[in-house]
Write a structure and sequence with these properties.
about 0% strand, Growth Hormone, Chain: A, 19 helices
C-alpha cells in the first residue's frame, strides 16, 4: 500500500474517504467481535432480572407493584446512562465510555449477587443500569463509524445480533441455574466481561470521531493502524481514497439542543417515538413473561423459565432476518412492516390466546420475532441520522427514549394486573402501542440506505 501522507489526510473528509475505500476485512470483524462481546454480556445481564423474579418474589414477598419497580429501577439507570454516556462519548471518545461502562456494570452485578438486602439490590441494579444504558448505544455508534456505506446495515446489524444472542444465553443459563443453584451465581456471571478490557484497550478510537474533534494527527495515526493491518491480511495495495464532496469542517462540540433544531427535530421526535414504543412492548412483555407463566398459569419455576426461552429465540430469528433484509428493503420499510406485524400478533394474542400458557407462548413469540427486529434496526438507523460531532448524542436520545419504554412498560403491566386487569387488556394495550410506532415511522422516517454518513447528515 502506498502510505497516505499526513498532509493528504488532514481533513475530516479525507479520513472518511479512507474509511469508505476499505474492503470489509478481518480487522472489521475483529472490532465487531470485541465490541460485540461486550454487547453480548449487556444482553445477558439485561434480562437476568426477569428470570430471577420467580425466586426473588417469595424471597422478599414482592407484590405486583413491587415486581414492577424491581424491573423498572434498572430502566431508570439505563435512562441516565444512555443520556450521560452519549454526551460523554462525544467529548472523551467512544472507546473510553465503552470501557468505563463495562467496568461499572460488571462491579454492580457482583454487588447484586452478594447482597441479601432488597434496598441494596435495588441500588446496585440502578447503578448497573447506568453502565448498561451507556454502553449499548455508544458501542453501536463506534461500529457504525468504522463501517462504510455499502452494506452498512447488514454489517452493523450482524454485530448487533450478539445482543439477542446474549438474551437467549441469559434465558438458557437462567433456566438451568436458577432452579438448581439460585440467582446469586447468575448475577456473579455478570462480572465476566471485565476479561474483555485488555482487548478493548488495543482497539483504535473511531477515526471519524477524532477528525470531528479536530484531532487530525490522532485520526491519521488510527487510520494508519487500521490500513496497515488490513493491507497485511488483504495481500495487496488498497485503492486510493476518493474524496467525498467538500463540506465545511465543523469541529464544534455537539449539543443536545441541536437534536431538536433544523432538520434534526423531525428525526429526533420520530426516533423518540419508535424507540419508546418498541422497547415499551419488548421489555414490558419479556420482563413479565416468566412471572406470568408462574403466577397466572401456575407453572413451576423450571417450566416457566423454559417457556420464556422460546420467545427470546424467536426474537433472535427476527434480528438475523432484518440484518439480511435492511439493505435491500431499506430502513423505513423494515421498521414499519415489523411493527405492523408485531401489532397483529399482539391483537391476536389479546383476542384468542390468553386462555393457556401455550397460546401465550405461541403468539408472544411471534410478536417478539418482529419487535426484536425493530430494536436491532434502530441501532444502525439512529447512528445514521446525525453528524459525527453529535452522533453519540443522537444515539443517546434514542437509547434514552427506549429506556423510558423499559421503565414504563413493566410499570403499566404491574398497574393493570395489580388493579385486577386481564391479560387480554395487557396484550391489547401492547398492540396499540406497537401500531402507534408503525404509523409514526411510516409517515416521518427518512431513508438512509447506501448513503455515506456524511451525505445523510447534510
Amino acid at each position: 500500500m502506498t502510505p497516505v501522507s499526513t498532509t493528504m489526510s488532514s481533513t475530516a473528509e479525507m479520513i472518511s474517504a479512507r474509511l469508505e475505500r476499505l474492503p470489509m476485512s478481518r480487522w472489521h470483524i475483529k472490532a465487531r467481535v470485541i465490541v460485540g462481546a461486550v454487547t453480548f454480556f449487556d444482553g445477558f445481564d439485561q434480562l437476568m432480572i426477569a428470570y430471577s423474579l420467580p425466586v426473588l418474589i417469595p424471597k422478599w414477598n414482592l407484590t405486583a407493584t413491587s415486581v414492577a419497580w424491581v424491573i423498572a429501577i434498572g430502566g431508570l439507570g439505563m435512562l441516565v446512562g444512555a443520556l450521560g454516556g452519549g454526551w460523554l462519548a462525544d467529548r472523551v471518545g467512544r472507546l473510553n465510555v465503552i470501557i468505563g461502562s463495562l467496568a461499572l456494570y460488571a462491579v454492580m452485578s457482583l454487588g447484586m449477587a452478594f447482597t441479601d438486602s432488597l434496598m441494596l439490590f435495588l441500588v446496585f441494579r440502578f447503578v448497573q443500569g447506568i453502565g448498561l444504558g451507556a454502553e449499548v448505544p455508544v458501542a453501536a455508534t463506534y461500529i457504525g463509524e468504522i463501517t462504510k456505506a455499502h452494506k452498512r446495515g447488514r454489517f452493523v446489524l450482524l454485530y448487533e445480533v450478539i445482543f439477542p444472542i446474549g438474551l437467549v444465553a441469559s434465558a438458557v443459563v437462567s433456566a438451568w441455574i436458577v432452579p438448581r443453584y439460585g440467582y446469586q451465581i447468575l448475577f456473579a456471571l455478570g462480572a465476566v466481561p471485565v476479561l474483555l478490557l485488555p482487548a478493548l484497550f488495543k482497539l483504535p478510537e473511531s477515526p471519524r470521531w477524532l477528525a470531528s474533534r479536530g484531532k487530525l494527527t490522532e485520526a491519521h495515526a488510527a487510520m494508519v493502524r487500521i490500513e496497515t493491518e488490513i493491507t497485511a491480511r488483504y495481500g495487496k495495495a488498497l485503492p486510493e481514497p476518493q474524496p467525498l464532496p467538500a463540506t465545511v469542517a465543523d469541529t464544534t462540540r455537539g449539543r443536545f439542543i441541536e437534536a431538536f433544531q433544523g432538520i434534526y427535530l423531525r428525526r429526533t421526535l420520530m426516533l423518540a417515538a419508535i424507540w419508546s414504543s418498541a422497547y415499551f412492548v419488548n421489555y414490558g412483555i419479556a420482563s413479565w413473561l416468566p412471572t406470568l407463566y408462574s403466577r397466572v398459569f401456575e407453572l413451576d419455576v423450571d417450566t416457566a423459565l423454559r417457556y420464556s426461552i422460546f420467545t427470546t429465540v424467536a426474537g433472535l430469528v427476527g434480528c438475523v432476518a432484518v440484518a439480511f433484509l435492511i439493505d435491500n428493503l431499506g430502513r423505513r420499510i423494515c421498521i414499519t412492516a415489523s411493527m405492523v406485524l408485531c401489532s397483529a400478533m399482539l391483537f391476536l394474542l389479546a383476542t384468542t390466546g390468553t386462555g393457556s400458557a401455550t397460546s401465550v407462548l405461541f403468539w408472544s413469540a411471534g410478536a417478539a420475532l418482529f419487535v426484536f427486529a425493530v430494536n436491532m434496526a434502530l441501532y444502525v438507523y439512529t447512528a445514521e441520522l446525525y453528524p459525527t460531532r453529535m452522533r453519540a448524542i443522537g444515539c443517546a436520545i434514542g437509547g434514552a427514549s427506549g429506556r423510558l419504554g423499559i421503565i414504563v412498560g413493566p410499570l403499566v403491566v404491574g398497574g393493570i394486573l395489580g388493579a385486577g386487569g386481564t391479560l387480554a387488556l395487557v396484550f391489547g394495550m401492547f398492540g396499540i402501542v406497537a401500531l402507534f410506532g408503525a404509523v409514526i415511522v411510516g409517515i416521518f422516517a427518512v431513508e438512509t440506505r447506501e448513503k455515506t454518513l456524511e451525505e445523510i447528515s447534510q
